[in-house]
Design a protein that fits this description.
Number of strands: 3
Strand order of the largest sheet: 1-2-3
Order of helices and strands: HHHHHHHHEEEHHHHHHHHH
Shape: globular
Number of helices: 17
Helix content: 55-70%
């Protein structure tokens, strides 16, 4: 055992190989003892079966080297470089450019830090992550110090805390909860509804949407039976439809106006439909190669509406390449998830795919007028520290899973 372990460089792999060797040696020993050998002879036979320890150690070292997904890392580097284009096109220099550089560097640190962290150690802290997420929402909901876009914020000096910052904690918590067979359906329901209530109380529609999508999609990869999963999915949908019918009569005029602006933007171009018409004009004006040199005013040009500004300044060709580039992240994450046998790692990948994919698809959809406008950033491209760290965290988790995807526990083996 010591000779084999001596030839393995990875500390994590050493622990894994030791457990695997002990497991297989015990199986072999029991097999020989069942054939009538004494315990000592059975142990010798089991060890003999394993072969040369030096050769075995070298083989296992090559097999269990920590994996690095260079494809995903290359995508992160490229997309972070592309994220500077809106800043350049808009002519921002000085503090905004410096902030952008700092955000990208911090994002890179987050990706690397999460990659080298052993994601398997996070599972046992599910309850702690849940409590931290709830605490963040409670502070924002009941002790807000600022407002932005109609929802509440909490400012602590230079630090701004918003509801989106609670989502990574709930993401880790639900990966742990859904991998726990001991939790009952009613317990999971209560745990899910409390954050939902707090999010609706803030309110932040984009964060609430992400929380709901993450929860229900991860639910389908949980340890619950498919009958229970189907029941948990259908019942809320039915109640939501019934509640929606009752609430139709209480819809306020400004809410109807927003709906009408989305459905018929040209008819409401001077009111709620203005931004839909404006975004359409900007995207159409971009052409294939953009309108370099023209400095049109575009609202939230480097944040929520960055896709429209990129299309306007750089054209359809760059916009199509950007969509393709961001889609590669999804394709890569889905590919990795299909190679996993461990339920916890698969839950993390499914949650990561959801939290990355939903904002990406929604942001592009609302820029094209297919979805209502809301505060939803484009992954890695939108300006801001929290969106950058949020997506870097997700990619770092994926890289951590990929790095250890071959280190499966002996019980699973």
């Amino acid at each position: 055992m010591q000779e084999v372990i001596h030839h393995i460089k990875s500390k994590e792999a050493k622990q894994f190989v030791r457990a695997e060797l002990e497991f297989h040696l015990k199986l072999a020993k029991n097999k020989w003892m069942s054939k009538g050998l004494t315990e000592a002879d059975a142990e010798n036979k089991a060890v003999e079966q394993m072969g040369n320890p030096i050769h075995l150690g070298r083989q296992l070292n090559n097999l269990h080297k920590p994996k690095v997904d260079w494809i995903l890392i290359a995508l992160v580097v490229i997309v972070m470089a592309v994220s500077f284009l809106p800043i350049v096109a808009l002519g921002y220099t000085g503090q905004i450019m410096m902030n952008k550089i700092i955000f990208v560097l911090l994002g890179a640190v987050m990706v690397y830090g999460m990659m080298i962290m052993d994601y398997r150690k996070l599972e046992k802290y599910g309850w702690l992550f849940y409590l931290v997420g709830v605490l963040i929402l409670l502070m924002i909901s009941y002790f807000p110090t600022a407002h932005s876009g109609g929802h509440l914020l909490l400012k602590l000096g230079p630090i701004t805390i918003e509801s989106l910052q609670a989502i990574p904690f709930f993401f880790l918590a639900w990966a742990s909860f859904f991998n726990n067979r001991k939790l009952k359906v009613w317990q999971l329901s209560v745990l899910f509804l409390l954050p939902l209530y707090l999010l609706l109380n803030i309110p932040s529609l984009s964060t609430t949407f992400l929380y709901l999508m993450m929860g229900f999609i991860m639910l389908w990869w949980s340890q619950l039976s498919k009958k229970k999963v189907l029941f948990i999915t259908i019942v809320p949908l039915v109640f939501s439809m019934i509640a929606g019918l009752f609430l139709l009569s209480s819809v306020k005029a400004y809410q109807l106006d927003r709906i009408s602006g989305f459905l018929y933007p040209e008819q409401y171009a001077n009111g709620s439909g203005y931004m839909y018409v404006r975004l359409k004009e900007l995207i159409l004006a971009g052409g294939w190669f953009g309108t370099a040199g023209n400095k049109e005013f575009i609202q939230a040009a480097h944040t929520d509406y960055v896709f429209a500004s990129l299309t306007y300044y750089y054209g359809y060709l760059l916009a199509a390449l950007l969509v393709l580039l961001l889609s590669f992240f999804l394709v890569r994450m889905i590919t990795i998830s299909t190679k996993l046998n461990d339920s916890y790692s698969k839950l993390l990948l499914i949650g990561g795919i959801t939290l990355y994919g939903c904002p990406f698809i929604y942001n592009v959809g609302m820029m094209l007028g297919l979805l209502p406008l809301t505060s939803m950033s484009l992954p890695f491209i939108s300006y801001g520290l929290m969106p950058t760290l949020f997506n870097s965290f997700l990619i770092g988790i994926v890289l951590s899973v990929y790095r250890r995807k071959d280190l499966i526990t002996s019980q699973i083996g």
